[in-house]
Backbone:
């Protein structure tokens, strides 16, 4: 079962209030890219920024709905 | 809960290798597009690195790295004992010159980001077999 893009978008948006979030399907419904610009990223390492995004959707990675999640993170 | 023996093996590998890549497959034959991209970057930098194929022990290794680095997906690139990231971060840092600097090598003049290739689950590829290295 592929992930619902809107669900993923809103999970990330809820975890990062004020962020701009866009989810793109990069193929097959289970390779997604999250493009996230968030104020919470300021001063954080890239790996920490990615951890923040991943933790919002971890259960969807664990249940296999997302096979791969690419992340483009920037400070808003 | 991660297997303690495996966890200490992993910690030792991270400590003993200046550059260490946990990947799917091996550098001559990556089994995932993301792993292939990281191998491509390391090849352009010309650095020596250790490579561990996670596929034979995928779930146990996810548990270990979740505990060690709060990170569960592969590939994972460690430099000087610290997790740098997966393919996205490695490519961004390569492109900006930060990765070369972190590794103490010269930034290649024509830095080239490899084309992301889709490798389907099961190992079959949509495009003709690619040359690596």
Residues:
């Amino acid at each position: 079962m592929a992930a619902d893009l809107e669900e993923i978008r809103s999970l990330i948006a809820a975890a990062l209030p004020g962020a701009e979030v866009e989810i793109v399907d990069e193929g097959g419904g289970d390779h997604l890219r999250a493009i996230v610009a968030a104020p919470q990223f300021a001063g954080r390492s890239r790996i920490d920024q990615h951890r923040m995004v991943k933790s919002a959707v971890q259960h969807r990675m664990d249940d296999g709905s997302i096979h791969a999640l690419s992340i483009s993170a920037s400070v808003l | 809960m991660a297997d303690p023996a495996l966890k200490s093996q992993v910690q030792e590998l991270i400590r003993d290798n200046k550059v260490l890549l946990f990947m799917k497959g091996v550098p001559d034959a990556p089994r995932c597009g993301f792993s292939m991209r990281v191998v491509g970057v390391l090849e352009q930098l010309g650095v020596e690195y250790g490579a561990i194929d996670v596929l034979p022990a995928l779930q146990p290794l996810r548990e270990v790295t979740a505990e060690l680095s709060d990170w569960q997906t592969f590939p994972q690139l460690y430099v000087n004992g610290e997790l740098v990231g997966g393919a996205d971060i490695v490519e961004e840092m390569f492109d900006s010159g930060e990765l070369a600097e972190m590794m103490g090598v010269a930034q290649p003049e024509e830095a080239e980001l490899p084309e992301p290739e889709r490798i389907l689950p099961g190992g079959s590829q949509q495009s003709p077999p690619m040359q690596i290295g």
